[in-house]
Structure formats: C-alpha cells, structure tokens
Amino acid sequence: MPIYDPNKVTLSWGGVAARAVANGEMFNFTFNNDIWNTYPSIKGGGAFVKSLDKTGTCVVSLQDVSPTKAAWQALYEAGKPLPLLLLDRNSTGEVAGAKEAMLARPPALVKAKELTIVQFTFKFVDGYIIHTGQALD
Known about the structure:
Layout: E1 9-13, E2 16-17, E3 27-31, E4 36-40, E5 46-50, E6 56-63, H1 68-78, E7 82-88, E8 94-103, E9 117-130
Antiparallel strand pairs: 1-2, 1-7, 3-6, 4-5, 6-9, 7-8, 8-9
C-alpha cells in the first residue's frame, strides 16, 4: 500500500519554495476552462473541440508565520511573471506548472488568537498538469 508523505510535495514561484505550508489543502492548481468541449450540430450530433485556453489559478495556503510571505511579496512588487512549479515526489513525478505566473494580489491580512492561514492566489498562462499516480507496491 502506498504511503503519502506531504513533505514530498513542493511548490515554488520564481524559484522561491513555499515553506511552512498550512495543514489540510496546501496547493490547488486548476485550469479556468475545460480543455475539451462539445458543440452540437444544428442537424443533430456534434463534435469535440479542443480549447487553446490553458490559463488558470493556483491557490497556495501558508501558515501566517511562513518566511515565504516576504519573498513572494518582493517578487509581486517586482511585477514580472515568473515560473510556477508544483511537484509531488510521492508518485513517479506528478507535476503541474506554468512558464509564467503572477500573484493576483497580496493576500488578505488576517490576525487571530490562533495561527491563521494566508492564501496566495496565482494566475497563470500556458499551464500544464501531468497525473502519474503512485505504484501499488
């Protein structure tokens, strides 16, 4: 039975790795639109049409004490698109990424009596997701 180790899942933006990630959902990398769509014919039937839209969003959840916050804030202020890479080493190399991604906006500033979660939302163009699964040893 495969064993999942969250420490083998990493994400970096502009070469700066996400550190002190939140418990629960750490990363959510998704496309804005379906890649394949159906279009009905006026005479019945239809066709499959592949979209060239590979834009999407990646939400990263960090602990409020994460040292990554300051580094990503500096990259955001530089205002340049940077590579985004999500890698899961639990598998044979499941990966998602984009050559160019931008932080959509600085995260909300929330403080509480307990440790809070900070969510960074990235927008990307020309993204990719490759699922490989894990060997059932």
